[in-house]
Automatic annotation (TrEMBL):
Gene3D superfamilies, A to Z: 3.30.70.100, alpha/beta hydrolase, Rhodanese-like domain
Protein name listed in UniProt: Rhodanese domain-containing protein
Gene Ontology terms, MF aspect: zinc ion binding
Entries under InterPro entries matching the protein: AB_hydrolase_fold, FSH-like_dom, Rhodanese-like_dom, Rhodanese-like_dom_sf, Rhodanese_C, TrhO, TRHO_N, Znf_FYVE_PHD
PROSITE patterns linked to this entry: RHODANESE_3
Domain Rhodanese: 158-258
UniProt keywords, alphabetically: Metal-binding, Zinc, Zinc-finger
Pfam families in UniProt: FSH1, Rhodanese_C, UPF0176_N
Amino acid sequence: MAGSSSRDEEEAEYGVLLYYKFTSIPDLDNLFTFFDSNCRSLSLLGRVRLSPNGVNVTVGGKLSSLEKHIAAVSSNSLFDGTDFKLASCRRPANDKVAQECGFTSLSIRVVKELVTFSCHPLLKSPDVSNAGSHLSAAEFHSVIQHAGKFLEKEGPDDHKKLVLLDARNLYETRIGKFQPPNVETLDPEIRQYSDLQSWIDNNSEELRGNCVLMYCTGGIRCETASAYLRSKGDGFENVFQLFGGIQRYLEQFPDGGFFKGKNFVFDHRVSVGSSDANILGTCLLCSSPFDDYSSRSRCTYCRMLVLVCDSCRKKRSQYICELCQKNGKTVGSIPLIENNESQELFIPNEPEGVPTSDHAGFSPQLPWRNGKWVDEVLTRQSHGRPLELNHGNELGHSRMAKESVMRSQHIGTKPSRKLRILCLHGFRQNASSFKGRTASLAKKLKNCADLVFINAPHELPFIYQTGLRDPNSCPPSSVPPNPPPPSNNCSKKFAWFISPDFSCRSGTNWEIADCPFDPLQYMQQTDGFDVSLAYLKGVFSQAGPFDGILGFSQGAAMVALVCAQNRATKGQIDFRFAILCSGFAVELADYEKGSINCPSLHIFGNDQGNDRQISSQASRELASLFDDGCSVVIEHEFGHIIPTRSPYIDEIKDFLHRFL
């Protein structure tokens, strides 16, 4: 009995502390040292995120230690007015939930943004000084309760209404949300917070002219989201946010008030409820009442958390979230990439045009050291050599330095999730040959990315030169000048664009080329985009989602045109970044410099590289069409290849790590 009482007392002494503060940090290194020393001396575990614009902290430990931490932080005038949310709870076990939430170690990082609002990680964040007005829990409750009087106070307008906007992810809203009577509520149903910007853009007219009340878990996401909404100008002046978030509201209204269900939290507690025992969530498979995410069940496709009850989990191991279901995903409909291996996907040339789901990636957290941004996560004891982007454009306003060292108490390991990149081959190539040519690249990126290869939709005839070998056709040993090679010596070849006079002549018979190889032939291959675009929509539908898309030579030209039409293809071809290798422009004459707004990496041979296929000037002109604020250029001296030696491979990794 005495041992049991002692354990109970120990449990009662444990707690979790959450707080954030937007403020200008004059010396990040000193602040890092303070948090590192203070948290370790008090045996606090969890996450500390520091940026030039403030801090975001979630740590756990003994209540007495957390109170000492609050006192130490409060002594710094930078943290005047900070809302420290301290709650007692059980001590986390060293289990899957605690590990995934970061409560088995102390992780202190300096990041570019405290919360990443945009899926374009290189674009500027909203100015939080323009955030929506704070409402206390009591004020927020009163506004909902007396919506009519509040609207009259804000100004007479027959068309104005009160709108309650949830700034959280879909899986959070499925176990708890505000459900007030007679007030319109909006759930964006986003996978991740960085998708909210696009949702606001697409629904801004529905919000314009209304009083918008925004809420989230603890308040920090509303700071950025409300600032972005207000930045849209006329009609968006009346934006308010719940100060302290749902957590403070439930403290003020223990019975739940207008909030029904549980509040999802990003620590070992998983969720926090009110005295109301009603369950809002339901099992994804059997629809029985269920709201426990402790099993950490995830969607097979996008990896979003899903609710699966204990009984259903025993019957099935693969699940498809409701968002992926809406976009036509089914269990077993496509092969999945596993075991760190790149893979070819063979998709029919006329796939069904089922819209794909949105991407499901994680927005980056960029480390900091000595006043510079760092893109690679290493251990505190590790030392990497400096990397420099000296072959092309720097990152506009971001101006990322490439010093590969990060100070962190958390031990750096492989990313918990790898990027998935769809790869488009060049003219007169195929998935197998491109996979072989990029084997070194795939090997060096194996810890952060999986490469997926597909054939283009336009099948080309076998051609050969008499006396000259087409460098794009087959290996030298298989293409003697005379007679034509045996048909079984080469695989079929494909293209994304074809010439206007192309006639579909497929088969296994070789044909003599009409003329000698022309290094400028890519300029005549301008038709077939519509077929290729429809084909890619099917690929994304059947095999997506993909975080990025990589194109080589003509494949890069296809990627560029897809990027240029990203608004028109939204919901069907969604990706977070593009990599264009030895690219050139096709049908982009009407686009101005800097008009294509998509995070992009451009890799091509410089003037000394002697790329005999695509001129460096053509690749340079293509890169200039992309917004300089979110593009990176790498020029190398190796011609018509993707370089995999240093420093180029390091720069490629730097770019990709921003999306992990």
